[in-house]
Write a structure and sequence with these properties.
Layout: E1 4-15, E2 18-29, E3 33-38, H1 44-52, E4 59-64, E5 67-68, H2 74-79, E6 82-85, H3 97-104, H4 111-124, H5 126-130, H6 141-153, E7 159-163, H7 171-186, E8 190-194, H8 198-204, E9 207-212, E10 215-221, H9 222-227, H10 229-236
Bound molecules: adenosine-5'-triphosphate.
Length: 238
Amino acid sequence: MDRPLLQIDHLNASYGDLQVLWDVSLEVRENEIVALLGANGAGKSTLLRCLTGLNPLTGGRISLDGEDLSGLPPYRRVNRGLVLVPEERGIFPELSVENNLRVGGYIVTDKEELRAGFDWVYGLFPVLRERRRQLAGSLSGGEQQMLSIAKGLISRPRLLLLDELSLGLAPVVVLKLLDLIKQIHESGVTLILVDQNVEKILSVSHRGYVFENGRIALEGSAQELLRDPRTKKAYLGR
Ligand code: ATP
């Protein structure tokens, strides 16, 4: 597979006096899909927030395509192509679908590029085109998740971080979203997926890291992790 796009070295992070990430090192190569797994509170969301600059590091280093990100505020990281779709979805219920997408595309100054971004996400999610004038708050849960992903994609990120993709969604909707993840990946986007639904998320991922109490406890290819007795026992109920 290709060269490293994201490199995390010996990262530590805390909330006040409470340290929640300990010496985390991992890499994501260009064009990979990497799953971050682990129980509630293991530190996965905190890691994503550190990547986007929403949480400070207390130690270690993050680099994107060889560039050290420390000192870069969140919006500059978006400019570099690093975009988070947060667990709470981050959409504005009182705005239309289209205006939510405009918010997602605020960094795109070139009109043609923005139009191409709209065409791309409306192609991926035709239901959003149909409902573009509807208020985001009136969409179903699955459509809101689609909007949230589309809002993240409209600026054509290089690395998309998806937190809790399947949370609160019906299994059939999750399957549809996983299919869309494959299409997004095929168009050249590298992805990090965080989800409680271990089996489903590993079914579309190349590799994964398992977090326990703020540390990486296990890493491997998706197949290795699915076969590993520790993953099976802890997450797959076997
Ligand atoms: P979840 O799936 O529940 O989001 P997670 O693996 O993403 O779990 P985090 O949300 O990163 O875990 O939480 C890691 C630890 O940090 C937990 O002990 C959590 O209680 C704590 N924590 C998270 N956010 C804050 C905060 N804003 N202030 C203080 N502690 C926090």
